[in-house]
Automatic annotation (TrEMBL):
Glycoprotein found in the keyword field: no
Keywords of this entry: ATP-binding, Cell membrane, Membrane, Nucleotide-binding, Transport
ABC transporter domain sequence ranges: 2-187
Topology in the lipid bilayer: Peripheral membrane protein
Family the entry assigns: Belongs to the ABC transporter superfamily.
Matches recorded under InterPro entries: ABC_transporter-like_ATP-bd (IPR003439), MetN_ABC_transporter-like (IPR050086), P-loop_NTPase (IPR027417)
Disordered as annotated region, ranges: 160-187
PANTHER family: AMINO ACID IMPORT ATP-BINDING PROTEIN, GLUTAMATE_ASPARTATE IMPORT ATP-BINDING PROTEIN GLTL
Taxonomic source organism: Pantoea ananas
Name assigned to this protein: Vitamin B12 import ATP-binding protein BtuD
GO cellular component terms, semicolon-separated: plasma membrane
Length: 187
């Protein structure tokens, strides 16, 4: 569950977030839609503690989000983020790329990380591309993701968008998914 109540944020004199409030319940998918510069990415960065906010409340998985909190790293390990401009390691397979987080962030063994990665790739329809190099997996939803940040759906074709959306809303129960996109028709 993600809960945002009356969150305010400014960059210098510019008020970016002015009393933003919404809730994402378990298994629900929410898309933030708005023009460039309207604060969509800023909200998502605040949810993960990558940005501080002046006032309001942000709670994720029943934990208060504060970038200065001692347990922010533990909370971040439970939040998936796909950034607008992310890249795979080109010298590693798709599977090896997905294994990076469980190994280097969560300290999982290679065998456990491989099991997790295969399950995740299966969940988003990428299992067939697991042993391909990222450049060779282009036709197999290379940038698809369930928890998404900052226009990451834009790099997918319409059929991939539908698949990702469908899996996110009716697939495995998740703590909640929030993303953003400029395309109001898609959202």
């Amino acid at each position: 569950m993600i809960e945002i109540r009356d969150v305010h944020k400014r960059f210098g004199a510019v008020k970016v977030l002015k009393g933003v409030s919404f809730r994402v319940d378990e298994g629900e998918v929410v898309c933030l839609v708005g023009p460039s510069g309207s604060g969509k990415s800023t909200v998502l960065h605040c949810i993960n503690g990558l940005e501080t906010y002046e006032s309001g409340i942000i709670r994720v998985l029943d934990q208060h989000v504060d970038s200065k909190s001692k347990n922010i790293d533990a909370l971040r390990r439970q939040i998936g983020m796909v950034f607008q401009r992310f890249n795979f390691f080109p010298h590693r397979s798709v599977l090896e790329n997905v294994m990076e987080g469980p190994i280097y962030v969560n300290g999982e063994s290679r065998s456990k990380a491989e099991k997790i990665a295969k399950e995740l790739l299966e969940r988003v329809g990428l299992a067939v591309a697991a042993f391909r190099w990222p450049a060779a997996a282009r036709g197999h939803r290379p940038n698809a993701g369930i928890a998404a940040e900052s226009h990451s759906f834009r790099r997918t074709d319409i059929s991939t968008r539908s698949g990702v959306s469908w899996r996110g809303s009716t697939g495995h129960a998740q703590p909640g998914t929030a993303g953003n996109d400029h395309d109001r028709g898609y959202a």
